[in-house]
Amino acid sequence: MKSNADESLAHAHKAGEMVTRMDGHPSLKIGPLLETEKHDIGDILRENLDHETEARSCYYELLKLVEGKDIVLEEYARTIIFEEDLHADEVNKMLREPGKMEVYS
């Protein structure tokens, strides 16, 4: 979970870099914080997977918009999609094999 949070921060930083590359100014606002009150590890992993799926969908949409128009944004979208796919695979493995979950510190 910690590495996922670190990855999310890195993605936010990269997104900010892409915005400033196009002479924009990244917003400092954050979206609403959702609390599901579900604290079972399986529920948390499934919720995480839902968020990963939604994020990947947005990056696929970005890729469609910039494909053949901006190689930097195209590669950015591909890189994030790749990283999100790998993370989703890890979460899916944990959900399939709950007795074999590794704990990372």
Describe what you observe in this structure:
Helix 1 runs antiparallel to helix 3 and helix 2 runs antiparallel to helix 3 (71-96). This protein has a domain at 50-97. It has helices at 2-21, 41-66, 71-96. The mean pLDDT is 85. It contains three helices and no strands. It is 69% helix and 0% strand.
Proportion of residues in extended strands: under 5%
Q: What is the mean pLDDT?
A: 85
Radius of gyration: 16 Å
**Secondary-structure class:** mainly alpha
- In the predicted model, the low-confidence regions spanning at least 5 consecutive residues are none
Helix and strand pattern: HHH
Key features?
105 residues; 69% helix
Layout: helices, strands, pairs:
Blueprint (H helix, E strand, L loop, with lengths): L1 H20 L19 H26 L4 H26 L9
Helix pairs in contact: 1-3, 2-3
